[in-house]
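Usage

Read records sequentially. Each one opens with the input sequence:
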Amino acid sequence: MEKPLAIDLFCGLGGWTEGLLQEGWDVIGFDIELHVYGDDKYPAQLVIQDVRTLHGSQFQNADLIVASPPCQEFSYMAMPWSRAKAKRAALLNDAEGRKRLTELFDACFRIQREACEAAGRHIPMVVENVRGANEWVGRSRWNFGSFHLWGDVPALMPIGFAVKVPGLDWNRFGQPGYRGEAFNTHADRNLRRTAIGNGERFTSRRNDGWFGSNNEHALRQSSSRSPARARARARAQVSKIPLPLARHIAKVYKP
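and closes with the structure output:
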């Protein structure tokens, strides 16, 4: 028998995909850049393409669509910093700015709608993002720890749990003098302080990614040990969908 097909949008390192593969799905991932960091890489067929350029009719044969749009701006504006608050206040009074902010999120549901229309049937979709997105895209239907879900979220969902990272003491994080071996507290604040791994002191140059020119795709061209690549790797690792969550969605929607 043919395996069911899932589409993974903004696939990154393939958190959704790993769970789907383990449950017997075929998966095609889409991302704007190739994520390869040593042995860490996307585990299935990958298409390098801007998700905004996709048309849902391409996926009329799919049985499931999952997506994890970038969350950096949502996370940043949820922080208690004065600059984050100022940016949030400005966007609340800027209709075009809000439209740009939710552009990638909206693209997911446009693609689902087009896929369903082409297929003549409903194709379920689950979109993951952070708690900070609630204010801008509507309340999430479920959360698995810090992973919030929108779309066709099943009624019965697993309970989230805390994930321990070697070298990190979350009870002491943020206290004076705390320096976790696997966490650089002086990392780029615009990237949610997610420098997990080597503890380097990174520069504050931000990658524009989906929202800008990307400075000639500096992340893709730099070496694996450069600060930019280290930040990109940390971002990709932290944003990976937990395997229990991915496998649960895979089981629920497997034909």
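Summary fields computed downstream for this record:
- Residues 103-119 form the longest helix (17 residues).
- Confidence is low (pLDDT under 50) at residues 178-224.
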